Input
Amino acid sequence: MQIAAPAKINLNLRVLGRQSGADFHNIETWMTPVSLADDLRVELTDESGIRLACDDPSLDSGSENLAWKAADLFFCDTGCSGGVAVSLCKRIPREAGLGGGSSDAAAVLLALNHLAGAPLSPERLEELAARLGSDVPFFIRRSAAVARGRGELLESRPPIFPPVHLLLLKPPFGVATARAYADWSAGVSCPPSWVAPQSWNGCEIFNNLESPVFARHLMLPALKMWLLRQASVAAAGMTGSGSCLFAILRNPAETETLAADARAEFGDSLWTAGCRTLG
Output
């Protein structure tokens, strides 16, 4: 079975504070899936065990990979016999705030449930997904939602219509999620003008993690401020804990020109990808 694992962007993200007695922060965030996606092939096998092959050699292909963990959790919960072979083609960059690993895990759960004859309800799939990571339940639904708690409490939102065209831009470094939240807790911050909320189409675009991340990685605020000066950009911000930024475009025909201009300004090591919101 072939299945796509879409990326996501956070249109806004508010950090509400550290959960008492826990190692995570409470958040409130409006997320939407986008058309940039990893590709997975998932096949049941008669032989027990999990085999994961990935075209990115920098990724673990064993039990530390979320896709592997998702398959293991599915078999443990359902008691299904046999095993699975998963082939993963990565297109979503790592440590970007785009949710690639979480989406891969959700795709494996969805594919296995389909191949096994749907032994798990959507609600049970979301429960299992929450065990794997904060964003994984969102990718089970694959539709716009406001997420609360540590990200596992979902409230559906209407899809953005018509779809919005985006340019994603990631510098040649990632941001560890744990570091971003630790810096937020420690009060690391940047000038307020770098992270001022924007109003777009009735939605407030902001991300509380921009301040600590921008303070450590000065290329990111420089890139964001440059984007906001471009006539083709309606709004721009950081997704998740970074390091990827997104630009909401006024006209999809301007995507390639903006990407080329950004690479000319910030160097060819800047990764760019055009995509659109899904719904």
Notes: The chain has a mean pLDDT of 95. The longest helix spans residues 100-115. The chain has eight helices and twelve strands.
